[in-house]
Amino acid sequence: MDPLIALALVVAFTLLAALAWRALVRRRQRVRQRAAHPQAAGDAGAAPPRKIVIFYSSIGHGHISAAQAIEQEIGRLAPDARVVLQDIREFMHPLWRWVDERLYWFIAGNLPESFDALFHALQARGKRVPSLAWLPNDYPEDKVRSFLEAQAPDTVLATHYGSAQVLGTLRERGLLTQVNIGWLHTDFFEGYFPRISKRIDRTFLAHPELESRWLAAGVPPDKVTTSGMPVRAPAADGATREMALTALGLAADAPTVLITSGKEGIGDYALVVESLARHHAGPLQIIAVCGANARQQAQLTALQKRLPEAVALKVCGLVPHADLLAWMGAADLLITKAGGMTPAEAFAIGIPTLLLDVVSGHERENAALFVRLGVADLADTLAQAGELAAAVLASPQRQAAMRRAQLAFHDRAGLGRIARFALDPALPAPGLPVDFGAEHGSAVADIDAALARLQAEVPCDIELLLSYSTAKTPQRVVLENPFGHIAIRVDDTVYSANYVAVPGHDPNLLQHVTLADYLYGVQPPSPSQVHTNTYGMAYGRETLGLRVAGVAAERKAAMVAEAHRIEAAFRQGRLLWDRSEFNCADVVVRILHAGGYERSPPLARQWLPVMPLDIFEEARQVCEEDASLRMELVAYRQVPGAHAVYRFSRFPLSLGQPLRSVARALREAPREPLEAAATKQLTGYFGDHQLYFEDLRGHGAGALADDPAHFSRVQRSLAGALATDLRRLLATQARRPLREIGRLGELDGAQDIRRLLERSLALARIATERADELLQDRGARRMRVLFTELVDEYGRIDAWRLRRQEIEAYLKRFQVFEAAVGREFPARQGARLARATTLRRSLRYGIRRLRRRVGGRHRPAGQGPDKGKSQ
Asked: What DSSP line would sit under 241-279, residue for residue?
């Protein structure tokens, strides 16, 4: 090679090496700088702005305004954050959404006692079900999940309990684990809602008293925050007041009353205005905001001409929210319903407030709290509203006291707490350890405290423990052992057959363990064990416990002696576990028989292996027949999120009950009546390592009994409430016959026809909901199918033309539904039969009246079968 070429190559190689070395040095310097100045590094590669989805429900404007206020606060704290507001009701089927909204407001505005009964029934059911996933849900979970997957938010907030419930169910299924989930409760009652809070990351409550109730219900403190209502009240002064009233053509120096009752304008405004005009002395100005209620607006417009000259009435329809807030600041008294948001806005502004009892249920609970705190007064009837309003206007001392209470109420508000939660870059609390619920791993927390609470609530001498079947993979029928497992506890010791015990290697055939180890243990009690099959059951399967008290000491001693005899026979090699001849159920049978609790099996089962489910149910029946015993069914729920090998649980099958077992195998997610009979449960929540005790028959969800404003009347049954409401509705119906059905849309009676149609559909929906709660079998499904068909037929009716053919088709479908009520419900006994009879009578009465209204015509005198009469 030429020396010059070689020299050139050496120089080039040296330069390349020098450049590479210099680049490496600079890179190391940059890394050191980033390590020394992390903030600067963060600025260089700034994290993307936070994305927040806020679910609201358009069923009420309060949920919308709360979501908008949170959005504004997030924008103030983090201008680059992206907020997506989403109506949860958009995931519903359009037709069902339309029907549902009309039914909701019809029942809320026209059937107050039924609405109240339905509200309390829902709250009671929410406390009774083993999981909130069992409750009916109008919002398809898979649609909500798909929406969130497409949006990929960092935080999801909800201003409506239905949205929070869906989010909690998704979290319970192991989804949304990397997303913060928060919920603002926009009302002032408890109900079953603390159970929603246990399933999500944070709940924001409107008042410290609610936080105390949530904590008393067992919600961890780090999951609850008192934030107040997210309201932004405008500052009010004399100039602002004068400007607002002048714009309405009203005087700035006259007492002014504002009446508003939500977007739907619920309640009889005319009755309130007349009462107010009658009881107030001197000049008075009334601003009536009717919302979208055109009928209300027309009635008040007609009333204007009949009012005294000293009373000026300004009638408005649906107005911008900003105008409504401005009028609140200008008025001397607000008359409104007891929703969550409007009263909270009034308290923030500082306007004396009078509440109307026009929407029952949750709003009655709100009213009870408001009155007890002194921030508002309550009119029990609309006719009383005027007298009470006049008394407030005439008493400056009363107004001042109410404003002081409102100031203390609003001072607790902290909208920024909700926004800061949404913007917190930290993920939800660190998940469960990778060995949670696994053999030799981490156990669930607070086991002893939860079991002690259960023992204090439901003391027992013996307990039968029926554990479900379990598998390593999801299976409709668990092939390894579809029949589950049964054990018996006498005092503090659980005796359970160990199917893998080996004579000479294991000391016992029976487990001698505590209830804590049997259900929640992670360390094997003896050499031959299978986790979640012989101990640690709750990490892989559900277990029902039949707790029995009142068992005599000598009977318990005989049971323990029999367990020891079984052990002796095992050690001597005379007795071994056998799936058909001597399984876990045989062990329990021998121990029960030794205690004197013996019952011969049915002849059809004498040649079959003894089944755990059969023994459990027969023992339950024996205990029910013995008046000296006290018995209660409890549930030990499978611990969610456990990493056990066996963790797919199914209700046990039985060879002795083939039809029931086949039905269980064919149905995807059946609801077993035996499960629903549990009155207490120990359970966990996904992502939470704590074990909770829950009373599924708890009370005290409503207003406190000693509230001065608490409604003293006893909660009526739904049937009684329906009867009360229907009598009131029917008494107010016009009785004008219709001449020509083809021109119904042009007649004055068309509105009556529409109301009767709405009422009939409302009654059908109530009957369907009763079927879901009372029947819990195929009958409930049949009722829901018929109701869906009825809704479809209702949707075909032209609301304006009201054609005969469409209404007749609907009436035929309604008759089919009413007949189904008669078939399905009477098979039930006692109170259920009484409810069904009353409900069916209401349905029949409604359809007869509707047929009379639709089919009636005037016949000329002397024609037809009823001569001289109008039919």
From this structure: HHHHHHHTT--TTS-EEEEE-TTTT-S-HHHHHHHHHHH
Separation between Cα atoms, residue 343 and residue 354, nearest integer Å: 9
Backbone φ and ψ for 204, nearest 5 degrees, come out as: -105, 125
Read off the tokens for 655.
């060879």
The span from the CA of 33 to the CA of 28, in Å, is 9
Q: Order of strands, edge to edge, in the sheet holding 333-337?
A: 311-316, 284-289, 256-260, 333-337, 353-356, 377-379
Q: How far apart are CA 27 and CA 32, in angstroms?
A: 9
Please tell me the distance from the alpha carbon of residue 245 to that of residue 247, in angstroms, as a whole number.
Answer: 5
Q: Is 467 helix (H, G, I), strand (E, B) or coil?
A: strand
Tell me the per-residue pLDDT of 107-119, one tens digit each, with 9 for 90 and over: 777 777 788 888 8
Residues 6+ apart with CB under 8 A from 576: 503, 509, 570, 582
Return the residue matching tokens 């350890």. Answer: 433
With CA atoms as reference, report the closest residue to 347 among 330, 369, 328: 328
Q: Is 374 left (phi over 0), alpha (psi -120 to 50) or beta?
A: left
- The residue ranking higher by pLDDT, 336 or 760, is 336
| Res 457 pLDDT > 70 | yes
User: SS3 string of 75-142?
Assistant: HHHCCCCEEEEEEHHHHCCHHHHHHHHHHHHHHHHHCHHHHHHHHHHHHHHHHHCCCHHHCCCCCCHH
* Each residue's pLDDT tens digit, 291-325: 888 888 888 888 888 888 888 999 988 888 888 88
Query: For residues 41 and 46, what is the distance between their CA atoms, to the nearest angstrom?
Result: 8
> Residue 467 burial (CB < 10 Å; 0-12/13-18/19+)?
buried
pLDDT for res 148: 94
Residue with token string 């929906």:
765
| DSSP, residue by residue, 765-811 | HHHHHHHHHHT-SHHHHHHHHHHHHHHHHHHTS-TTT--HHHHHHHH
pLDDT of residue 105: 77
577-601 exposure pattern, b = at least 16 Cβ within 10 A, e = fewer: beeeebbbbbbbbbbbebbebeeeb
Helix (H, G, I), strand (E, B) or coil at 751: helix
For residues 807 and 854, the answer to whether their CB atoms sit within 8 Å is yes
Closest CA to 104 of 722, 758, 799: 758
Supply angle C-alpha 87, 92, 97, rounded to 5. Answer: 95
DSSP secondary structure code for residue 649 in this structure: E
Q: How big, in percent rounded to 5, are the helix, strand and coil portions of the chain?
A: 50, 15, 35
From the number of C-beta atoms within 10 Å of its C-beta (0-12, 13-18, 19+), residue 353 rates as buried
CA–centroid distance for 504 within its chain: 54
Compute the distance between CA of residue 533 and CA of residue 518 in angstroms, rounded to an integer.
10
List b or e across 660-690, with b for residues whose CB sees 16 or more CB atoms inside 10 angstroms.
ebeebbeeeeeeeeebbebbbbbbbbbbbbe
| DSSP letters for 330-393 | H-SEEEEE--SHHHHHHHHHT--EEEE--S-THHHHHHHHHHHHTS-EEESSHHHHHHHHHHHH
Q: Above 90 in pLDDT, residue 102?
A: no
